[in-house]
Amino acid sequence: MPKSKTKLFAGPRLRQIRQREGLTQAALAGLLDISLSYLNQMERDHRPLPAHLLVALCERFDLGPAWFTDTREAHRVQALREVLADPVFKNTSLPLAKMADAARHNPDLCEAFLTLYRAYAFEQARTDHEKDSSPPLEPYETVGNWVQEHRNYFHELDQAAEQFYEQLDIDDGALDQALASHLRARYGLEIDRDITMEARGLVWRIDRQRQRILLPPNQPPESTLFCLAQIIGQLEYNQLMTRILRREGPRDSNAQALARVFLGNYFAGALLLPYDRFLQCAGQTRYDIDCMRRHFRVSFEQVSHRLGTLQRPGHEGIPFYFLKLDIAGNILKSFSANRFSQSRFGGPCPLWNVFRAFATPGQVQIQLSQTTDDSIYLNVARTVSREGLAYGDRPRQTAIVLGCRLSDAAGTVYARGLDLEDRSLVVPIGPGCRACLRDDCSHRSLPVSGRMLDTGNDARGVVPYRALPEKS
C-alpha cells in the first residue's frame, strides 16, 4: 500500500517523553536496543525517527503515533497565525519561522497563549452584547482539540470494536441482522419503529420497560446500522470509554460529556468498518469511497469518516483530514490526521471545492489545493444530505471534504487523470480572509487583520484594499 515517504524528525518529543519518564539517554537507548549516539542524533533532529522505533516507543510508553509527529505543531502554528492577525496585535510582527519554532519547542506556552486569547475574545463578545452567557462552542472546541491530539484514532476502542465484529455470526454480509440478533439474545431487546421519533428529534431510544429499541420510520439502512452499533457500544463498552476519559479525557464536565458521545460514535464506526478489513479494502480499491461503501453496505459519509482514523501504529493508511460543513459554511465536524488545519476564528475559504459540491449534489468534486503554508492537498468533496421526506421537510444541506497530501495522492483512485506535477491545476486556498495573506485573491471579502492598508490613489488592486508588506 502506498505510504508517505516524509521523514519524521521528533527530537523535542523524544526528549520530552524521556524526561517525563526520568530516563537518561543511555537508559532509553538500552530500552530501544540502539546505540547512545544514534539516540543523541535523533534527539538533536540530525536523524529521523524510523517506523520500527516509532512503534516500539508507542507500545513501551502507551502513546499514539501523533505524539511524535509534527501535525500538532502545524495546527498550532495555524492557530497562532490567526490569533496574531487580530487588530489587537497590529504592532506585532512575528515571522512564520519564529511561530513554528515556538510551536515546536514551547508548546505549553503556545497553548496558554491561545487559551488566553480565547478568553479575551469571549469577554469582548460578552461585553459587546452586554449580557452574560457561556461560550456555546467551548466544550466542542475542547473535544475537537482532544481528538486532534490523538489524530482521531483511539487504539483500545478500535481494537475492541474489531474483536466484537470478528466474534459475530454474520450471514451473507448482513451485519444489521447480526447486531439485531445479538441485542435480542443478550438483552432481550427487539427493534420497533415509532412514528413520533422524528418529531421529538430522536434517532433511537431504548424503552427498557417494553424491551424495545425504538427507531424512526423511513430511516436509511446505513443509519439503522450505525444506531445499533452505537447502542452496543453504550451497553457493552461504557466502562472502557469511562477508563479512557478518566485517564486522558477533557476535565470540563460538559466537554467530557461530549467526549463520551464522540467515543460512542467512534466505536460504532469502528464496528461497522473493522480496521484490518477496511484497510485491506481501501488498498485494493485505491481508496475508492463508492466501492467501499457498497462493499460494507454503509454510507459515503461513514466511509469517509473512517478513512480519517487509519492511524494504527505500524498499520497506518493514508493520513486524511475530514470536514463536514453545512451550506452556510458552518463546520460541523473536523478531524485531521495530517498537517491540514481549518480556520478557528473565521469562515472557510470560498475557493474550497466543498462549496462547489453543493452545486452538484451527489457528485464527487476533485481539487488540488495549496494552503498558506505551501502544503498541497488532493481534496475529495461531495454532498451527503438526505432527501426530503415530504413537501414541508427541509433537510439540512451538508457536504464533506476528505483531503490527503500530494505525496499520498497517487495512492488513491481520485488522482486518476490528474497531472500531479502540473502546478497550474493547484487552487490556492486560505484559512479565511482575516488571516489569509494572499493580496491578489479576487474572492477576498475583507482585508487581512493586523497589517496597515494601502489606500493610495496611484493604483488599485483586484480588491479595493491592499495590505502593506510585512516588515522582515
TrEMBL record:
<dbReference type="InterPro" id="IPR018653">
    <property type="entry name" value="ScfR_C"/>
</dbReference>
<feature type="domain" description="HTH cro/C1-type">
    <location>
        <begin position="14"/>
        <end position="68"/>
    </location>
</feature>
<dbReference type="Pfam" id="PF01381">
    <property type="entry name" value="HTH_3"/>
</dbReference>
<dbReference type="Pfam" id="PF09856">
    <property type="entry name" value="ScfRs"/>
</dbReference>
<dbReference type="GO" id="GO:0005829">
    <property type="term" value="C:cytosol"/>
</dbReference>
<comment type="similarity">
    <text>Belongs to the short-chain fatty acyl-CoA assimilation regulator (ScfR) family.</text>
</comment>
<keyword id="KW-0805">Transcription regulation</keyword>
<dbReference type="GO" id="GO:0003700">
    <property type="term" value="F:DNA-binding transcription factor activity"/>
</dbReference>
<dbReference type="InterPro" id="IPR001387">
    <property type="entry name" value="Cro/C1-type_HTH"/>
</dbReference>
<dbReference type="InterPro" id="IPR010982">
    <property type="entry name" value="Lambda_DNA-bd_dom_sf"/>
</dbReference>
<dbReference type="Pfam" id="PF06114">
    <property type="entry name" value="Peptidase_M78"/>
</dbReference>
<protein>
    <submittedName>
        <fullName>XRE family transcriptional regulator</fullName>
    </submittedName>
</protein>
<keyword id="KW-0804">Transcription</keyword>
<dbReference type="InterPro" id="IPR050807">
    <property type="entry name" value="TransReg_Diox_bact_type"/>
</dbReference>
<dbReference type="InterPro" id="IPR010359">
    <property type="entry name" value="IrrE_HExxH"/>
</dbReference>
<keyword id="KW-0238">DNA-binding</keyword>
<dbReference type="GO" id="GO:0003677">
    <property type="term" value="F:DNA binding"/>
</dbReference>
<dbReference type="InterPro" id="IPR026281">
    <property type="entry name" value="HTH_RamB"/>
</dbReference>
